[in-house]
Amino acid sequence: MSDLHPSREIVVVGAGPAGLQAALAAHDAGARVTLVDASPEAGGQIWRGGHPPSRIAARLLGRLRDSPVQFLRGCTIVDAPKPGQLLAMHDGNPLWLSYHRLVLATGARERFLPFPGWTLPNVLGVGGIQALAKGGLDLAGKRVVVAGSGPLLLSVAASLPLYGAQVPVIAEQASLSHLVRFALGLRYLPGKIPEALQLAWRLQPLRFQAATYPVRAHGDMRLTAVTLRSADREWTVDCDYLACAFGFVPNLELAELLGCTVREGFVVVDNWQQTTAPDVYCAGEPTGIGGAEKAMAEGAVAGLAAALLPEDANSPVSRNLHSQAAPHLARRARCHHFAQVLERSFPLRPELRDLPLPETTVCRCEDVPLIHLEGCSSWRDAKLQRRLGMGHCQGRVCGAATEFLLGWPMQSVRPPLSPVPVRLLAAAALAKADDSNPHPQTRPGQ
Amino acid sequence: MKHPDAIVIGAGIVGASCAERLSADGQRVLVLEAEVVGSGATAAGMGHVVVMDDNEAEFALTRYARQLWLECAHQLPAAAEWEPVGTLWVAADDEELDAARGKCAFYRSQGCRADLLSAQDLYRAEPKLRPGLAGGLLVHDDAVTYPPPVAAWLLERARNRGAEVRTGVRVQALEGGTLRLMNGDSLQAGLVVVAAGAASLRLIPGLPLQPRKGHLAITDRAPGFVHHQLVELGYLKSAHGSALESVAFNVQPRATGQLLIGSSRQFGQTGAEIHHALLSRMLQRAIDYLPGLADLSILRTWTGFRAATPDKLPLIGPAPDREQVWLATGHEGLGITTSLATGQILADLVAGRTPGIDPTPYAPARFLSAEDERSSIPEAADVHFH
User: What is the pLDDT of residue A180?
Assistant: First the structure.
C-alpha cells in the first residue's frame, strides 16, 4: 500500500529555515503545501535581506521559487477557531486556510529586559539593528554599543562595521567561564556559527566584555550614552545606538491558541515533531532555541512526518518515512546537543532582575511602571488590575520581561494574533462562505 | 481565618460587593475565588452602568444600583476608569424614535434625567454616526467603568474590616454550610453566598441558570471617536428576546481612547472560542452605524458567559431547599450595573433589614417548583439541555 497522500493539505506557518525545510520536505513527499509568512519575503528573521544570502539560504529559497509550493507572502495568521482551520489576513482581506496537517515554524523574537532608559529612541534590539541596517538605516560613523546576551551579539557586532558603524564595546552578561564552556561545546557543531564567533573574537578582542551588562541608558529625547556594569566597575560609554537583547523567546502565540502543551516555555513535541494538539507539528525555535541548523533539521522531520505519518496513530510508520527522515534525525540530534550547550552557556544573571527602578516602564504599550505591579499575584491579575500587556503588542515584549523579573508565565492568548482592521474581521464570515477552499484548483506539477 | 461568619464564593464584582456589604455589618467574611479577583464575567463584560426599563423589576433594580454607583463614584480608584458619559440610545427610524419618545417620558416621570434627541442633535453629539438616522435618547447619568479594579477596591474595603480573600481556591462541592475544596480541605460557615456567575450552576445543579455567551472586541486607541455609550434601540428587542443568537450595535468609549465593541448573545454554547460568523455579524452591525470604525484596528477579541435566568432577573436571596446557602447570581448582562445593589439587598436581608427596594422579584424562591422552572424557560433555550 502506498503511503503517499496526494490529497493531503499541509499548511506551514513561517518561512524561515524551519518552515522552508518543512514545506519543501512535505512537498517532496507528495503533499499539497501552502507556506505562509507575515513578511513579504521568505527567509525568516535570520535570512531575510541577507546580502549576499548564505549558500544554504539561497538554495532553499531557490527551491521554493521553483517548486509548486504555494507561498503566501504578507499573510498573517489571525485565529485558529477550530481544528483544521486558520483565519488569516492576506492583502488586507480575510482568508480561510484549511489543512489536514499544520506545521508551526513561527520562530522567535528577542528578549528585552527593562532597565532605566531602555525605552529611549535609538535603544534597539540586536537582531533589530541588523534588520534596520539591512533595510537602509544609515549607520556610517555611528557609535553602536552592543549589549545583552547570546551568540547573536558577536555576529551582529562583527557585521556592523560593514555598514560603517563603530562598536566601542560588546557587553555580554554571561560570565567568561560560561563562554569558554560554550566555545568548547561548539566543537560538536559543524556550521556557520563557530566561524562567526571566531571572526568576532579575532576582530574585537579588546572590546568584548564578559560578565558586563547595561544598567542605564542616558538621554532626554534620544540616547546619548549607556552605563555598563561589571563585577568590579561601572562606566559610561557615549553612543548613538544601543543594540541590546537578552537572547530569544519563542513565538508561541499560535501554538497556545491551538492548545499545544507548552512546558518550561517551549512547545512539547515527540520524535516526529508532533505537538500534543492533533495534526499540529512544530519545528524550530518554538521547540527550543537552537538556531537555523536545528530549525532546518526539525523542519525537514516535521514536513516529512506531516506528509507521511498515517492518520491512525496505531498504524505502523512506513519504511519510506524512516529512511527519508534518518539523515535529518541524525542532524537534529547533533543540533539538540548544541541547543543544550547554548542554554547552559548564557544563563541570565539574577542581578538583571534588580535593574529596573520602581518607576521604570515595564509595559511600554500601556506605560506600566514596575511599581504598579506590586501586590499583583500573576500575569492575569496584573493584566486585569494594572493593564499590563493590554496594548498593541499584546504582551510580546513585557511578557518575557515579567516572566524573568517576577516569575509569571504569560497566560490567555487571544485572537487576533496581531492587530487587524475591524473591516477584516467583519468580512471574515463572508469570506468563508464564498471561498471554502482557498487552495487553487489547478497547480503546476499536479 | 478559622471560623468565618460568612463565606462568599466568587470574587467577581457581585461577590466583592456582597463581601463588602456583609463586612460592613460586622460579619467576618472569607472570600474564595477560583482564579483571580474580577476575572470571570466581571473582566469579560462591558462595564456599562445603565438604567434599563424592560420591566418594572429591572428598572427598580438598575435605578437603585446606579444611585449606589453615583454615591461612591468619587471614591473609586483611577484604575476603575469611571466615565459618566451617559447612554445614547440611537433610533434608526421613526418607529424607533417613537419608542425613544415613550422611553424618555417614562424615565423623566421616574426622575431619571433623559433627553430626546432630534437627528440634528444626534449628529452634533456623535458626528461619526452614519447619515440617515432618526434621532435618539440620551440618558445622562449612565456611566462606563472598568470593572476588575472595582471588584479589587470593594474587596480592599472588606479586607480593611477583617475580611480575607483567597484566590486560586476552587470549591468542589457545597453541602449545606460546608464547602469541600478541590485540594481536599473543608470549610464551614453559618452563611454561604454563591456568587460564582454562570459557574454557580456547577455548585448547585438545577439552578435556573444558563450560560449565555457574548463576544466583545476592543480597538486600538482612537480618542474622541465617540463620546457616549452608543446602543441601538433595537438592542432592547435582541437582548431580551430568546433567539438562539442575536447581535446589536453597542459601542463604548474607554478612558484609554479605545473603543469596546459589542454585543452578541448566544445560548447553547459552552466553549470560549471565537465564533467568527457571529463576530462578523456583530462587527458589521457596528460598522453599519459607525462606518469609520471599519478602518480602526482590533487588538483583542474575547468571549464571556452571562448567567441568564428564564425571566432575566437575578437570583438574590436564600437558595430554596438549602439551609445556610444564599444566592447572588443570574445577573445576565447587567451584573456590573446591579452588583452594588445586589450586595446591599443581600446584606439587608441577612441582617433582617428592609431593603431599599422590594426584593421579592429577585428572590430565588420564585423558581421554587421544578415544574414552573421548566415551563418558563423559553423554548429555544431548551436546546442547551438536550
Answer: 79
* Residue A392 lies in domain: 356-415
- The terminus-to-terminus CA distance of chain B in angstroms comes to 43
| Boundary residue ending a domain (A197, A223, A246) | A246
Q: Where in chain B is the domain with CATH 3.30.9.10?
A: 84-142+210-305
**Dist. CA A28–CA A295, nearest whole Å:** 18
CATH of B6-45+147-209+311-385, one of 3.40.50.720, 3.50.50.60, 3.40.1190.20, 1.10.3720.10: 3.50.50.60
- In chain A, whose CA is at the least distance from the CA of B166? A377
A385 to B220: CB separation less than 8 angstroms, yes or no: no
Does A233 lie in the same domain as A117? yes
Q: Are A158 and A89 part of one and the same domain?
A: no
The residue among B327 and A1 whose pLDDT is bigger is B327
Residue A4 is predicted with a pLDDT of 52
Closest C-alpha to B42, from B341, B384, B364, B338: B338
Please check whether residues A13 and A92 belong to one and the same domain. yes
A378 touches chain B (CB under 8 A): yes
The one-character DSSP state at B378 is: -
Q: Which of B36, B275, B280 sits opposite A378 (nearest CB)?
A: B36
Digit-coded pLDDT (tens) for A203-248: 555 588 999 999 999 999 999 999 999 988 999 999 999 999 999 9
How much is the mean pLDDT over chain A?
90
ipTM: 0.90
| pLDDT computed for residue B384 by the predictor | 30
Residues A232 and A144 in one domain: yes
**pLDDT tens digits for B162-184?**
999 999 999 999 988 899 999 99
CATH code at B84-142+210-305: 3.30.9.10
Does residue B214 contact residue B265 with C-beta atoms inside 8 Å? yes
Which residues of chain B make contact with A390, given a CB cutoff of 8 A? Answer: 299-300
Widest Cα–Cα separation across chain B: 64
Nearest to B283 among A392, A415, A422 (CB): A422
Q: Give the burial string for A134-171 (b: 16+ CB within 10 Å, else e).
A: eeeeebeebbbbbbbbbbbbbbbbbbbeebebbbebbb
High-pLDDT (> 90) share of chain A, %: 76
Residue B143 has pLDDT above 90, yes or no: yes
Number of domains in chain A: 3
Q: Do A385 and B37 touch (CB under 8 A)?
A: yes
Q: Are A127 and A208 in contact (CB under 8 A)?
A: no
| Residue A225 C-alpha, separation from nearest chain B C-alpha, in angstroms | 33
Res. A1 pLDDT band, cuts 50 70 90: very low
3-state DSSP assignment of residue B55: coil
Chain A CB contacts of B152 under 8 Å are 385
Q: Are residues A263 and A288 in the same domain?
A: yes
- CATH 3.50.50.60 spans which residues of chain B? 6-45+147-209+311-385
Question: CA of B115 to nearest chain A CA: how many angstroms apart?
Answer: 31
Q: Of chain A residues 79-108, which have a CB less than 8 A from chain B?
A: 79, 81-82, 87
**Which residues of chain A does B37 touch, with a Cβ-Cβ cutoff of 8 Å?**
381, 384-385
A363 and A312 assigned to the same domain = no
CB contact under 8 A, A414 and B167: no
pLDDT at A6 over 70: no
Question: How far, in Å, CA of B192 to CA of B184, rounded?
Answer: 18
Would A279 be classed as within a structural domain? yes
Residues of B in contact with A422 (CB under 8 A): 217, 219, 261, 283, 286-287, 293-298
Residue A185 contacts B, CB cutoff 8 Å: no
